[in-house]
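Please fill in the sequence for the structure shown.

STRUCTURE ENCODING:
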């Protein structure tokens, strides 16, 4: 099965009235806020960047994270200013690709935002996973880099504790891994031996590897997993050997999400429309946000590193599709 695109895509594009987002607006995380409204966090670039002479990457390319709000998940009103900006040494070259998770911790409801922090120029590999948080989408707090030492991206936090611990998927190329934290304090300020003990055992914590031709080069988590009766629904991206980005789906075990219950051998979304095939990075659909509206799964994705788009599916339809490919059948 394939997701059905919103007929009036894109839902957000570059905004000439806002200098910080006048070049591009794309790669958007989504959640339902404490007021019941739908919030979209997206990567925004100012106009005036230029492609490097060798064709890989751009000059003067620094991103911030913007926010937009909606009653129906389709028509969004933007905040005038970015909510997360490159103000520190670890993200001075950009704040990219936010994912947002609503998580209750110690009686408090927090929205935890993972994003890619660039300490060097974009496309140079100088990226780390950083964390920010908010309670109300009006005040945001940056917590700094939370996965040190290796180039890492596509980190998403589960919306419930797993075995009493915070669980996070992340991506050390080319696979998807999982890591657990006993508390938010450990996530933000781990002891010195936490990561030095984890990295040598990375193979043990690998959840998914590239398996099909359309994801042969690498895979990465998309939106935070969604809890369903059938398992954790994970929408993810896969990249083939021609650098085409597609979206896939899998189900992870509710109690042990390192176990894959089912995985579709076919992409659920791939570049077909002009706004997905042509842009700053052609042939890209990059899912980062997902919510449930009534019985529908809304998936928010970046198209061609240029704009934000929306696609739908009935939740039951996508679960039925995945269960037809249950592992071990």
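FILLED IN BY: designer on duty
SEQUENCE:
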């Amino acid at each position: 099965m394939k997701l059905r695109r919103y007929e009036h895509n894109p839902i957000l594009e570059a905004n000439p009235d806002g200098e910080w987002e006048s070049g591009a607006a794309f790669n958007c995380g989504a959640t339902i806020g404490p007021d019941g409204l739908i919030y979209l966090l997206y990567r925004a670039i100012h106009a005036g960047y230029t492609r490097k002479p060798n064709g890989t990457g751009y000059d003067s390319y620094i991103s911030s994270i913007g926010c937009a709000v909606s009653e129906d998940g389709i028509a969004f009103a933007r905040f005038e200013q970015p909510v997360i900006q490159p103000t520190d040494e670890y993200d001075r070259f950009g704040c990219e690709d936010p994912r947002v998770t609503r998580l209750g911790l110690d009686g408090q409801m927090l929205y935890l935002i993972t994003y890619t922090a660039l300490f060097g120029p974009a496309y140079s590999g100088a990226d780390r996973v950083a964390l920010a948080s908010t309670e109300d989408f009006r005040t945001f707090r940056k917590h700094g880099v939370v996965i040190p030492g290796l180039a890492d991206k596509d980190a998403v936090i589960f919306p419930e504790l797993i075995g009493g611990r915070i669980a996070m998927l992340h991506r050390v190329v080319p696979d998807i891994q999982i890591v657990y934290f006993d508390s938010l304090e450990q996530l933000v300020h781990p002891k010195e031996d936490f990561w030095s003990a984890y990295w040598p055992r990375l193979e043990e914590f690998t959840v998914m590897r590239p398996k099909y031709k359309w994801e042969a080069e690498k895979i990465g988590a998309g939106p935070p997993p969604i809890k369903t009766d059938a398992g954790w629904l994970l929408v993810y991206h896969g990249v083939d050997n021609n650098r085409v980005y597609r979206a896939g789906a899998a189900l992870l075990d509710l109690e042990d999400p390192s176990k894959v219950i089912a995985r579709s051998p076919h992409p659920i979304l791939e570049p077909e429309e002009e706004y997905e095939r042509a842009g700053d990075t052609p042939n890209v659909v990059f899912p980062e946000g997902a919510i449930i509206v009534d019985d529908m799964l809304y998936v928010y994705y970046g198209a061609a590193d240029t704009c934000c788009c929306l696609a739908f599916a009935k939740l039951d339809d996508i679960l039925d599709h995945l269960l037809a490919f249950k592992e071990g059948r």
